[in-house]
Amino acid sequence: MNDQAQKISDISKNGYQLLKENRVSDAVDCFSKILLIDECNNYALVGMGDASRKMGSVREAVRFYQRCLDHHPGNNYALFGLADCYKALNQYQKAIDIWELYLQHDDKNITVLTRIADAYRKVRDFANSKNTYLHVLEMEGSNPYAIIGLGHLHYDFKEYREALFYWEQMIGFSNGEKSANFQDNGIVDIRVLTSIGNCHRKLKTFSEGIPYFEAALQREKNNFYALFGLADCYRGMGQTENSLKYWNLILEHDPKNKMILTRTGDAYRNLNDMERAKLFYERALNIEFDTYAVMGLALLSRVNGKYEDAVTSFKRLIQQDNKNYRLYIELADCYLQMGDRRRAAQTLEEFQKLGTRNEKVTEMLESVAGYRQSENN
Questions:
Q1: 223 phi and psi, to 5 degrees?
Q2: Mean pLDDT throughout 6-17?
Q3: What residues contact residue 271 under an 8 Å CB cut-off, 6+ apart?
Q4: Which CATH superfamily is domain 1-107 in?
Q5: Rounded CA gap, 319 and 312, in Å?
């Protein structure tokens, strides 16, 4: 190695050491010195790309990695860095293309394979994502990134039982053991716990989700997803007072969360505390218009016998969201309480004319229409 090559090698090693120590500016100085000597030096160009990423300048990093690849096609470090940049920019298809170029040189790299599978998941390519995750598991049967990724993949496609199959592997769930009896060893990622809990929320097996959210709270007492999950599970179980406890805990840390304010209003309404319910609906609306807060106030009007006010509110909401079946049901119920079954039926029929079928609307319409038929007979 001649003197210049040795000098470049020494500066490069120093630059990468400085990057490891997060002394990014000093590392940039080192790589810049190399580029003054050799403007196409692959180590310096990759180093500048890595430094740019550490500083949050992802687009600048792309330019350095691409410069390296222009002069050194197939450079693994530049390919890896460039793909990660595209991932950070949410340009998943570009990231996939680059990672697949990388695999031409190193097709056994599990890290790259799991990232490709993740990227396929992001672009909703179920088959390629699943096949790539499974390929990783063929190479390394207990790879946690592939197992968790398969859970997310199935969850994204609303295959909640399949998602549970993978996520429960992360906590040693086996042999049909009930999830409520699981032992959290403190190692499992909190996101796995809340993800399993969310599967149970979606499957409406609320009581089985509660232990997972509770375990997540033991790790992080103010974790939003755990608090929300517990509140929603208790809501689904009809335990309104318990759900209210967790809605209020969220609001202690996030008092302007419009959705949570509305849910809290719903809980107070279900507990017949109409004044507090009204307060929370109005707090939500003071932040921004919210369909469900307006709906909550309309329901309060109906409970208080102010049927015309409720009808006016529901009609306005339907104009803004004419495919929300619940609005038609609530409006029809207003008419029923006013003794006007004809208009109740017409309201439900208007929804069906949209070409959308909903079981609850159909059942209510059959009930109303059946009553009208018996009256006519």
A1: -60, 120
A2: 91
A3: 240, 241, 244
A4: Tetratricopeptide repeat domain (1.25.40.10)
A5: 11
